[in-house]
Amino acid sequence: MTQIAFIGLGHMGLPMARNLLKAGFAVTAFDLAQEALDAFARDGGKRAANAAEAVRDAQVVVSMLPASRHVEGLYLGDDGLLQKITPGSLVLECSTIAPDSARKVHAAAAARGIALLDAPVSGGTAGAAAGTLTFMVGGKAEALECARTVLAAMGKNIFHAGPDGAGQVAKVCNNQLLAVHMIGTAEAMALGVASGLDPAVLAEIMRQSSGGNWSLEKYNPWPGLMDNVPASKGYSGGFMAELMAKDLGLAQEAAQATGSSTPMGALALQLYRLLLKQGNGKLDFSAVQKLFVE
């Protein structure tokens, strides 16, 4: 049986690790939050006292952490996790981080004889729970082939974006677009309701028309229009606005590095930063609707 270490049992990591258990893998996990470890243990997973203990006998290591600094802090340095992982093992780094950070960790792993893929995900907490995530993978094609069985236990779409760091580039592009169409949807909903339209009628008109997009189909930001989305639960759960702001910042860094023009992404970042300044950073990113109704 494949032994997997899972580092990071947050909103995304915990359901991903649970799906690995359901697929029959032996999973040992570590997280700084004892509550998350307890929940994982109740599902049949094994708890580790620290990250080094988690990877001790692992053939595959999966990590899902908040930002670049956490990933670099975990893996790099003389006491980093790459020094604890057995050469020949496979690392699936699923966090959303800067492409340059991903390449740095790739290089350090290669120097230790460890195969590493940057494999950020799309699909949100619902996709993580359902095992329907999309993986955007950067790294060697042969490493991806070795990883497919593990990735398939957590997602239904696996794309090889390209070489080291390419998965992260694809992810920041995707999340920039997600932010832009979520903001556009929220703005249009607010305009229509302020002008006297029924929000449910307006949403359906736009969904079936040329304005249709993922936010209207799956994740409407107007409260009460869709069951089981954060907007209908006080914007709780889901993908936090502060993480969207982080990802939009990464997109702007990539734009600066390549000389790309991304005015919509830059505006989206400013609007999400405003949402954070209003104290809404822990809410789901669809809470950007609040900027247009309050």
What is the β-strand count?
9
Q: Which CATH top level class of the largest domain fits? A: Alpha Beta
CATH architecture of the largest domain: 3-Layer(aba) Sandwich
| Main sheet strand line-up | 3-2-1-4-5-6
Beta-strand content: 5-15%
Q: What class do helices, strands and sheet pairing give?
A: alpha/beta
Helix/strand order: EHEHEHEHEHEEHEHEHHHHH
Mean pLDDT across the residues is 96
First and last CA, distance = 54 Å
Q: The CATH topology of the largest domain is what?
A: Rossmann fold
Pathway: Amino-acid degradation; L-valine degradation
Active site: 171
Domain 3-hydroxyisobutyrate dehydrogenase-like NAD-binding: 165-291
Pfam families: NAD_binding_11 (PF14833), NAD_binding_2 (PF03446)
Summary of the model, kept short:
With 294 residues, this protein is α/β, with parallel strands linked by helices. The chain folds into two domains: 161 residues, NAD(P)-binding Rossmann-like Domain (Rossmann fold), CATH 3.40.50; 124 residues, N-(1-d-carboxylethyl)-l-norvaline Dehydrogenase, domain 2, CATH 1.10.1040.10.
